[in-house]
Design a protein that fits this description.
The structure holds two protein chains of two kinds. Chain A is mainly beta. Chain A has one domain: Methylamine Dehydrogenase, Chain H (7 Propeller). Chain A is built from one helix and 28 strands. In chain A, strand 25 and strand 26 form a beta hairpin. In chain B, helix 2 packs across helix 6. Chain B is rod-shaped. The two termini of chain B are 32 Å apart. The chains are: A mainly beta, B mainly alpha. Chains A and B meet through loops of A and helix 3 and helix 8 of B.
Chain lengths: 329, 224
Amino acid sequence: MDRIGRKGITTAVIALLASLLFATAAHAYTVYVTNEKDGTVSIIDSAKLEVVRTVKVGQRPRGITLTKDHRWLLICASDDNTVQVFDARTMELVKSLPSGQDPELFVLHPAGQLLYIANEEDNLVTVVDIEKDTVVAEIPVGVEPEGMGISPDGKVLVTTSETTNMAHFIDTATNAPIDNVLVDSRPRFAEFNADGSQVWVSAEIGGTVTVIDAMTRTVTAKIAFKIPGVPQDAIQPVGVRITKDGKRAFVALGPSNRIAVIETATFKVEKYLLVGQRVWQLALTPDEKLLFTTNGTSNDVSVVDVDKLRVVKSIKVGRYPWGVVVAPF
Amino acid sequence: MGRRCGAVLKEDVITHSSTITGLIAASAIALGGAQALAASANGADWPCVQRRVATVTSAQMWDGPDVDDLTQWRNNDEMKKLIAQLLSRRVPLDQATDSIAQFAAAQRSDEREQALKLLFAGLVDTANNDRAIVLHGIERFQQRQKARAAEIERQAAQLRQLKEQAASDERARADLAAAEERHQWDVRVFTERQQSIPLACEVPVLIEQRLFELGRAIRSHMSE
């Protein structure tokens, strides 16, 4: 091979590597995982797929979310009875919000200012203004509220009640109940699809996901799960995520150690993917190319390639990883 | 196997030099403990927050083929030895995964898949036996705690009676001192053992964690 030819190939290789690097950099997001037992947050770089930082937070951190402007990271420090606010980039503690007793899960209003927090022991939803640090309202709901979902227009809040097995629909303008829908045993999580037409409610003991028509508040479908060789009582649906186009849903199935991939047009399970032990919560990257799952017993996070529907990596984090959220930076 | 669970469930020796808490406070703890026991047991002798799962299946632990009915590993002494070594929590996980890699590499390529399946079948079966011993141990432990709680309640009733008698009866006063000491002792034993229950409840989880990791390692050497 002559010198020019070799040089040409070298240039091409460098250009290719540069483009690959650029492509990787363009898709780098920050993934935050709460570790319930360690009282820490593991921060994962979505391009490197490794933990880049571990930060000490309050006791028993569980629910986690980002503010709409991505400035703050909000964490339910359950055993400290507070919601901690961290600067999402520096991870400095900005402040602690009043939260009511034992906050576990919460949901932020789409307008970005009001945070709805489930207080399991007090049978309340506490509404907190995260800018003014004040409790705006306390809404009495069913026994042991747990799952929290809010419609994309912010008008309807859905809380699930572990003991009465109901999804409660609440008008956020008046904080008054609109309706209750019976679901299966121990509902854990409520998730609206992007166009707000459906609410998906998972039932941990019932082993199902109930899809509710958000307008009529009637049951559209009930999704059951069956995995050959896995005892039925190990299939415990918890976290639910639906893609922005509304075509595909992912459901974490607890100690079956799998997630279910569901085609939303038919409500059929396309595939079960083995992730880690006691898979609990899920989060998609903003481009929806990767899905992160927290695996509470194997102390890791699984990374799923959404196009290929394959688990591409398992990343060790702290003990009892619980919640997960992805920032677009 | 028995040794592994025995280490966690061993009842600690309590020395007299330990601080003895006040009688009333101790009784309150004992009675509170008894109520907690009754509430959590739900008619069974299972004290753990974790749900009681009798056995785990291979399908829960990996996405490879179902190996629950494979038993030929029992006839292979070398494999049985490897299984015991892999499951022992004294062996660091890295070392265990290295051993799996060596085992896979040592197999003829046309036999590797089957050998790895047999290895995992043996691991699942043995881990289930380990778990069963632990579950049984936890339940026996709980039964003894229940018996202690009942005895503490009986002593508390006796103490109340002795206190009334002690006002006028010299001998009752002497009996009261001995009974109080005995009661304090039993409350202390009960309380300390109660504190070790969450630790014991973690043991089945630890076995499952290791089995899952071993399954992952074996799968990485399989093409199926």
